Fold:
Amino acid sequence: MGKLTLSKSSFVKGLQCDKHLYLYKHHYSLQDPISETQQLVFNRGHSVGKLAQSLFPGGVDSSPSKPWLYNEAAKKTAALISNGEKIIYEATFVFDDVVVIADILVNDNGSCKFYEVKSSTSISDTYLIDTSIQYYVITKCGLNLSEASIIYINNQYVRKDALDINELFIKESVLEVVKEKQNFIEEEIQRQKNILKLKYIPQIDIGAHCSTPYDCSFINLCWKDIPENSVFDISGLRGKKKFELYNQGIVSLDDLTNDSLSQKQSIQLNSYLTGESVIEKDKIREFISDFEFPLYFMDFESFQPAIPLYPNSKPYQQIPFQYSVHLQQNKDSHVEHFEFLAESSKDVDPRINFIEHLIETLGVNGSIVVYNKSFEITRLKEIASDLSNYTSEIQKIIDRIKDLMIPFQQKWYYTPEMKGSYSIKAVLPALVPDLSYNDLEISDGGSASHIFESLLNENDKEKTNYARSNLLKYCALDTLAMVRVFKILKDFSS
Ligand code: SF4
Structure:
C-alpha cells in the first residue's frame, strides 16, 4: 500500500497518535515484533469473520490476493456489483487514496447494506469510527447504502449441542451514528494525509494514548529512554498519576518521594531505595498456621475460545484443560506429582475428564494451596454450574482452598527484586533463584492458553507432542514453585 494511502487500520492509528500513523506508514520496520497474543487475536478475528459469512451464505470473495493489490480487488468488487452479485465478502473500495474492505456487502437491487464483523462482545467507539470510514469511502464510490451494521458476539449465548450462529452473533445497525460522523471523517482524512506528507517524524511524547484504544506497536522505540525502575513500575499507581509525575520530570524511582503513595506503594519505593526486604514474621506465622497437611499445591490452565466449542459453554468462557498438583503428605515427606492435560480436540469437552481426574487426585482432606484463589475457585464454580453432576464434590474442594498469594499481595513479605509485583513469576526468582521459568519454552499462562488453542487445529503429531510436553513442564513448575515458596514461609514461621 502506498505511503500516502490510508486504510481503515492506519486511520485508527492516526486517531490514536500522529507519530503512530507516521511511523507505521514511513518506518514500518521499526515496529515491535508481533506478540503471541496479538497473533492469536488476529487469527481469532479471521476465524470469527469467516464464520459470520455463513449468516449470508453463497457470497463471492473479493479480497485482494496480496494487500498491495487493492486496486485490482476494488475493480473486481465494482464488477461484481454491476453484474448484480447479491452477496460479496471482503468487498474492496478505494476513494481518493483511502482503501476500505467491507466484511460483508449485501447488494439488493442497487441498495446496499454492509456489515462489519467484530470478534468482541460489544461495540466500542473505535468500531463506530472504523465503520464510519468504511461508510464514507463506499458512499463516495457512488454506492447507495441503506444499512451499516456491526456484527459482534453475543456473550449471553450458551451453546447447546450444535452451534447456532444466529444466536451466537448480534447484528446491530449503527447507520445513524455513522452518518453523523461523516463530516468528522472527511476532515480527519485530510488532516492525516497532511501528517503523512511531513518530512519529519511528528514530535509526540509518550502518554496514555500509547495504550488507548490499543497498545501501540512502537512502544520499544518511543519508550526506550524510560529507565528500569521508573514511576511506571509503581504497582497500583493510576496511569494518570504516573504521567503527571513523568510530566513533572519525575521518571526514575530515585527521584520519587513517598508523598501521595499508598502504604504498599511506599513499601515498594523504600525497599528499592534501601535495598532491604520487608518480612513480617508474625503475620506470616499466623497465616501459615491455617494450613493443614496433607498439602495439595494446585494450579489450573485454561483457554478462552471466542466461538464456544462445547455444549454448555459461552463465547470466551474460560475452559480449564490442564492441572498440576504437588502433594506433600507431611512436613518431612517428599512431594509427589500428579498432572492432567486434556486431549486437544474440538469434539471432546476437556472439562469432564479434567474435573473427574481432579476430584480423584485431591482426596478428601488437607489444604489445597493455590496462588490467586479467585482464578481456581471461579473455574471450579463454572464447572459446577455447567456440569451439575459434580456440584457437591466441587464445593468440598473450594472449602479447602488456601491462597499462598496473600503474604505477597499484602506485602508481609517483599523484596526489591519483586519490583512491586506479587505474581508467582516475580516472587519465585526473589525467593527461589535456582528455580526459573526462563529455561522453559512456555513461561506464562497466556502462552499456555494460546498454545493449547492452536493445537485444536494442529495435525502434525510431532509438533503436538512437543507442545504438550512443554505445557506439562510449565504447569508442573507453577506448583513446584508454590512448594518451594511455602517451605520458605514455613521455615520463617517455625
Ligand atoms: S508509543 Fe506512544 S508516542 Fe510513540 S507512536 Fe506509539 S502512541 Fe505515539
Remarks:
- The radius of gyration is 27 Å.
